[in-house]
Amino acid sequence: MPESPKMIGRVTRCSTRGFVGAMQISENALPVFGSLCQAEAQGGRSYVVGLVYDISITDDQFARQLAALDEVPQEQIADGQLNRQVPVEFSALAVGFHDDDGFHQSLPPQPPLTLASVFSMVPNDAVDFTSELHFLQMILNAPQLPVDELLATSLRLSAQARPEEERERFLLQAGREVARLLAQDLTRLENILRGLRAKE
Length: 200
Known about the structure:
By secondary structure, the protein is an alpha+beta fold. Helices cover 37% and strands 27% of the residues. The chain has two domains: 1-122, no CATH class; 130-200, no CATH class.
């Protein structure tokens, strides 16, 4: 049975270059750095593909008061982390979009609107989207992001979405494309290739 995408939040800020989503969910439902997600756009006729590059816990007055105590009872920590809904914000770089013609690795024609639903990308869709590697240039061109770590982590996660026998081939192909794009910056290339080889 195919895996269904899970709603992970709603858009709070957006542009054609990316979007910010907010949610109130438990720790094990948080999106992962370098993972792909999709936000509804154009009245549901398309989805913007985002690459999660930042996750932050928004200000929580109750947690700030507890943090000032010398000792915090374990039950209060459990209540703050597990039982209470923790306000979380995540930022995603737009790396493509999906419409009736399938996936496209370019900036979307329109951003999602405020409060649009954001869904995790299921493995089959992640494999489909990353079958082409044009989106790597979009990551490398992103200003003020942890680009090298983001690129390496996203490729490792994309490899994990594939059957085990296809993972090494995908990473080799991705490594060759990164080497082509960074042929003039060997130090940076080595850092990214080292990240691709990093253990999960």
